[in-house]
Design a protein that fits this description.
- The protein has helices spanning 12-25, 47-64, 81-87, 95-104, 119-129, 152-155, 157-171, 186-190, 201-215, 238-244; strands spanning 2-7, 31-36, 70-73, 92-94, 110-114, 136-141, 175-178, 198-200.
- By secondary structure, the protein is of the alpha/beta class.
- The chain folds into two domains: 2-95 and 204-244, Rossmann fold (3-Layer(aba) Sandwich), CATH 3.40.50.12500; 97-200, Rossmann fold (3-Layer(aba) Sandwich).
């Protein structure tokens, strides 16, 4: 099985973090291939940045999807996910959706803990778009600057653990998700310091992608995720244009 991991952020350091969490989770025989966005932002933190990152993710997927059994959009707000599910025949997994659905299998309500205040509104809307508002215990965000986004989990580890424990104590969270691509892999390091299950977003995405690829379900030809009708395009990269007008 081959799974394409798309980082819509431009930081190679974040891609390295994602793969550091993904590879130990992959089953024997699963090959993971990572791509880093060629343009955009070091990390996505706002709605506008997510729109741009989602478009770049669709371009990367269009150019590189051949020969893969599934793909992962490896940013916690799932930029471009629903569009990718319309355009491509393979399963496309969003890292946020995978983490949240996995958390729902471990407890009644989950909390999201992340490293920047700016991420809160986008993550809230992501929860809503996936229909999981009733399962959300709360979103906890650090307030303050950090030296390097790719190393923020090392710099802020203790503060993130404190936030997670407050979510358990004050929000009655049954599960914690440490959210945002730069925090990939942190769950395994700190799970012994938090008294409820802690979901690693990237590991969850890998296991969900493997499961969907193994199920070998058909691409929808009806419903809201059917392939869009052909339409002329202007100025799009050739590979992406062919997904709209084969």
């Amino acid at each position: 099985m081959r799974i394409l991991v798309l980082n819509p952020n431009t930081s190679q350091g974040i891609t390295d973090r994602l793969m550091g969490a993904a590879l130990p989770a992959a089953a024997a025989g699963t090959e993971l291939v990572a791509l880093t966005a060629p343009r955009g932002f070091p990390y996505i933190a706002t709605r506008a940045e997510a729109q741009i990152g989602g478009a770049v993710a669709l371009e990367m997927l269009a150019e590189h999807h051949a020969g893969f059994d599934a793909a992962i959009i490896a940013a916690f707000g799932d930029p471009g996910l629903f569009g990718a599910r319309e355009l491509f025949d393979m399963p496309v997994v969003g890292m946020a959706e995978a983490a949240m659905l996995t958390a729902c299998m471990l407890g009644r309500r989950f909390a999201i803990v992340t490293f920047a205040q700016a991420l809160g509104p986008w993550y809230q809307e992501c929860v809503e778009s996936h229909g999981l508002t009733g399962r959300l215990a709360g979103i906890r965000m650090l307030d303050g600057r950090f030296a390097s986004v790719s190393d923020v989990q090392d710099e802020k580890e203790d503060l993130l653990v404190d936030l997670a424990n407050k979510a358990v104590e004050e929000n009655e969270a049954d599960v914690v998700i440490l959210a945002g691509a730069p925090l990939a892999g942190l769950a395994d390091k700190v799970k012994h310091r938090i008294p409820v299950p802690v979901v690693d977003q990237m590991a969850a995405a890998v296991k969900q992608a493997e499961a969907l690829a193994t199920l070998n379900v058909r691409k929808a030809t009806a419903g809201t995720f059917r392939r869009p009708a052909p339409k002329p395009v202007i100025g799009l990269p050739d590979a992406l244009a062919r997904r709209f007008n084969p």
